[in-house]
Amino acid sequence: MTLLLKLSQLIDLLNERVGKAAFWLVLLMTIFSAGNATVRFIFNYSSNGLLEIQWYLFAAVFILCSPYTLQKNEHVRIDVLAGKLSPKGQAVIDIIGTLFFLLPMVIVVLWLSLPLVAESYKINEMSSNAGGLIRWPVKALLPIGFTLLALQGISELIKRIAFLAGLIEDPNNKAKGPTPEEELAAAIAAANAKEAK
């Protein structure tokens, strides 16, 4: 089990680095969006390539950050039932969900996306829009992102099993302290209080 926990740590490190690197794509997407809007307003010019790169970047952020979201236990879950269970009950639910829902779904998406990407690359598929971009890079995000998601699912599975075996602390425990939303609300309240003086 120690070897599996080391593997889990390596997967976590990989997905954390990919996820944090993908955060920078949000800035890049914002720059492209603002630049496109500025050029359209000032010069009355627009490009389908500039529009498409925005949604390529959005797709990259969404797909590449999904494994990181799963790792940080920030994914969507139905806490109406799971929230009433003990930590061990929640771990069992996570194991069942990973084995019977997450991993099969990832395998299906990988199975279906690989030929799609290969064909797109083979024919050098281009956007049907005038001045659009090549399509295979954005399609390649599917197998890359879902492979990372599968790896993260395996890592989470290892952690839940290790927790049930008493080898590690509860992986569902979130860090104590204010949420980002609570920190933002506190900062706004402090700024308003300072402004009122």
Short description:
The protein is mainly α and 197 residues long. The protein contains six helices and no strands. α1 (2-43) packs antiparallel against α5, α2 (48-71) packs parallel to α5 and α4 (87-122) runs antiparallel to α5.
Detailed description of the structure:
Helices cover 77% and strands 0% of the residues. It contains six helices and no strands. The protein has helices at residues 2-43, 48-71, 79-82, 87-122, 136-164, 180-196. Helix 1 (2-43) packs antiparallel against helix 2 (48-71) and helix 4 (87-122) packs antiparallel against helix 5. The radius of gyration is 21 Å and the shape is flat. The mean pLDDT is 88.
Main attributes?
single chain; 197 residues; mainly alpha; 6 helices; 77% helix; flat
Chain-wise SSE layout:
Layout (H helix, E strand, L loop, with lengths): L1 H42 L4 H24 L7 H4 L4 H36 L13 H29 L15 H17 L1
Helix pairs in contact: 1-2, 1-5, 2-5, 4-5
